[in-house]
Amino acid sequence: MRLMTRFAAALAAAAMTAPAAADPEDVWLYNWSGYIAPETVESFQEATGTRIILDTYGEADEAEARLIARGTGYDLAVAASETIGRLVEAGALQEISLASIPNAAAIDGELMEMFLASAPQAKGYAVPYLWGTTGIVFDRSAVLERLPDALLDSWALVFDPANARELADCGITIVNSVEEVVAAALAYLGLDPQSHSAQDLEAAFGVLSSIAPYVRSFDSDQYDALLDEEICLAITWSTDGLAPLLEEDSDRYHYVIPKEGANLWADLFVIPSDAGDTAAANRLIDYVLRPDMMAQATVYTNATNSVPSSHQTISGSKYDLPAIAMPQELRSRLFFVNPRSGEEKRDLDRRWRLLQIGL
Known about the structure:
D-Maltodextrin-Binding Protein, domain 2, globular
């Protein structure tokens, strides 16, 4: 979910449209942009003789729509946790045989149980790849200059319109993910972040409408804006929010998971219902789930990976940050976005678009 990195072009397999007919020595992967380490691609190809052909996307909605439409030619895809339920219900995925993926035995069972508790229909259809949170990243000095008494560990830092107004001049962006942002607004209000209640959703959109005039953009490509110091606060995915600290070795920006609770997301391997080569897909999943490959994934994406045994091979104390290590005391404050029906999602999308254009 989710690193819109400027280095995506360095991947060994170039992004392209799906094939009319796949080469038997190729495996076609549909993934977020910049979301698999080039070293992993190269070593898989060397070890197996199978070439990874990569097609990429930048929005979870884009991937969901394409998989539901079928006819993709993909052997394997990475899909966002909030979309899995709808993909299963639409018949867009086929079941995955874990017997063909022995390394899946090493995944973090607690995180997987948390996900399946929120989306039980996904059982048997998804294998976790990477995990992260949706929180707040901010320029500490810029924020404190404008809000010296602000609570820096609360959603109020941005959802209180008085705070948003003071920060507007230095730049606020919000990730373009309506389900996650609405859940955050519900948590800020002390409501159930997984609520489907019309009254609760009205309250959440009320919060978002109150700060919308102060938001520079609703944008899923926040990575470069953070590294280039173009904004002072963002509601963002942890993969982007941690980039200045982990990749630029700078303490200017701080990433926080608000005390009211925050969204836990997962990006999971799924096999499209019309996949041409499930054996190749299983081989790739199994290879990526090796501890050494998972360590590469964390270093490359800033995400928490699915194999705890990989952590000891990740060098550098910064990778012990709570947002990556995800200790037990943090997990207790996290929640998954509950799956919404297609109709519910379309209603959220409509309100989200109206919000963005000021209506």
